[in-house]
Amino acid sequence: MILMPSLFLVSQNQSHKYEFQHKLLWSPKLNRKHGRNPGYVNMSHVRRGDIIFHVFNQKIHAVSVAKYDVYSSPKPLAYDGNIWDDDGWRVDCDMYKLEIPLSDHREWLNAHKGEVFDKNGRLKQQYLFELNQEQKNYFWHLIPSKLMESLLIDSTTSTTKVPNLREVGKSLSKKRVIGNNQIWIHDLIQ
Q1: What is the pTM of this model?
Q2: Contacts of 50 (CB under 8 A, 6+ apart)
Q3: Domain residues of the chain, as ranges?
Q4: CATH of span 2-188
């Protein structure tokens, strides 16, 4: 039996280099004024097997699977001097590089904005968004099917399926056309 994961979209502007290098997400639990922030609250919802789309500079640069449930973690030392609280949430991930410009999908994103995208189809300012069902269906189809299938959790073994690159095959290093849009798919981030 395959468990259907939640799908999230993370906006990694200030933190993208560190989080990509260390294959993780990290956010404080509270905002600067020690209040709740929807993007940080969403971090507390991430569970093992959930799928995360990583956005930097209005492009999806990676897709990942959460290796474990979210857990409490102090602010990484690399973030010292930052205004963020020390107490935070952390999610460890297996990441796979992609290049999908959101601008190629602006028309659809504008028509289906919800809480994630603004009236111009641009990503709103927030760290982590949980995608609604309609957005989930759209984003799901941006990813090669063999890669997406390999990211799912098999509840009978309770382990993360990591793609065998031979199985996923040449699709990981080729340009893929979806409608009128082209995306580049790369291999596992080492």
Answers
A1: 0.76
A2: 5, 6, 7, 8, 65, 66
A3: 2-188
A4: 3.10.590.10
